[in-house]
Design goal:
Belongs to the cytochrome c oxidase subunit 2 family. This protein has 302 residues and is of the alpha+beta class. It is 35% helix and 20% strand.
Length: 302
């Protein structure tokens, strides 16, 4: 929440600091009154006056002032997106994030997973829902929490004010791997974002080497395509994340591991140790050459 980079989070940060400052003033005042009362003789004090003033009038005035100060600064409960807003639909699953981009300006409709990229300075309208149980979308530096409910669409309107990478986390207990359900939001300059979105809209690149060709054949032979879509290779899988541009993501496993050759090999061979209960089996039974080819091919999906 601190060092916020989104307009919605900045409102929360301002309110937090005001409340903290008010609490500090009240605490200091109470301590001063306590010290003053200890120096006075009991007959000089008027307990009823202090109880009525400090216990009723003062809290009522402070709470009323805070209420009228806070109301205009709270984010809209049901925000209306500006005409130029980028629409990003995020559907939570146990335990990964499905991400779909819809750009009214270009008509692009792009699928991704576990990582969100947004343009700096442009409103982003998040449409949030769930495929199974209640989850909660929370990227503290961008905005407050929003529950993600099956069969219902919730919304957040966010504008990032500077580039960067910010970690998000499911904030509603959703099962044994709730703590391992993270995601990253990357803020890009508008030109860089447009180039990235155009690249994401393209199908997967063709294998450029024999090793990558073996990796693609292994992906199909092991029936990874039954759960995962790779556009241009196999588009029947809908149970797991879309892997069309898997290699361009910073992390894998919903924020679990860095997307490096070592991370991909560890993920493929030890997924049930890293994320117990995930619906993908560990592939430690594969030959080392097959694992290497599969990991290299996945990494080449830029």
């Amino acid at each position: 929440m601190f060092f916020s980079v989104g307009d919605a989070a900045q409102s929360i940060e301002t309110v937090t600091w005001v409340l903290f400052g008010g609490a500090l003033v009240i605490f200091t005042g109470v301590m001063l009154l306590l010290a003053w009362s200890l120096r006075k003789r009991s007959g000089a004090l008027r307990p009823r006056l202090w109880v009525l003033g400090g216990g009723v009038v003062f809290p009522a005035v402070v709470l009323a002032a805070l209420f009228f100060w806070l109301v205009p600064r709270m984010p809209a409960w049901k925000p209306i997106p500006p005409a130029d807003a980028l629409i990003v639909t995020v559907k939570a699953h146990m335990w990964w994030w499905e991400v779909r981009y819809r750009d009214p300006a270009t008509g692009a409709d792009v699928m991704a997973a576990n990582e969100i990229r947004i343009p700096v300075g442009r409103p982003v309208y998040f449409a949030l829902t769930s495929a199974d149980v209640i989850h909660s979308f929370w990227v503290p530096q961008l905005a407050g929490k929003m529950d993600m409910l099956p069969g219902r669409m919730q919304h957040l309107l966010v504008t990032a004010t500077e580039p960067g990478t910010w970690r998000g986390q499911c904030a509603e207990f959703c099962g044994e791997q709730h703590a391992q359900m993270a995601l990253h939001v990357v803020g890009l300059e508008p030109a860089a974002f447009d180039a990235w979105l155009a690249a994401q809209a393209r199908p997967a690149p063709a294998p450029a080497t024999q090793l990558l060709l073996l990796g693609r054949e292994s992906f199909l032979a092991q029936r990874c395509s039954a759960c995962h879509t790779v556009r241009g290779v196999s588009e029947e899988g809908r149970l797991g994340p879309d892997l069309t541009h898997f290699g361009s993501r910073l992390h894998l496993g919903a924020g679990m591991l860095a997307n490096t050759p070592e991370g991909r090999e560890r993920w493929l061979t030890h997924i049930q140790q890293i994320k117990t209960g995930a619906r993908m089996p560990s592939y430690d039974r594969l030959e080392p050459e097959t694992l290497e080819a599969l990991g290299e091919w996945l990494g080449s999906l830029q």
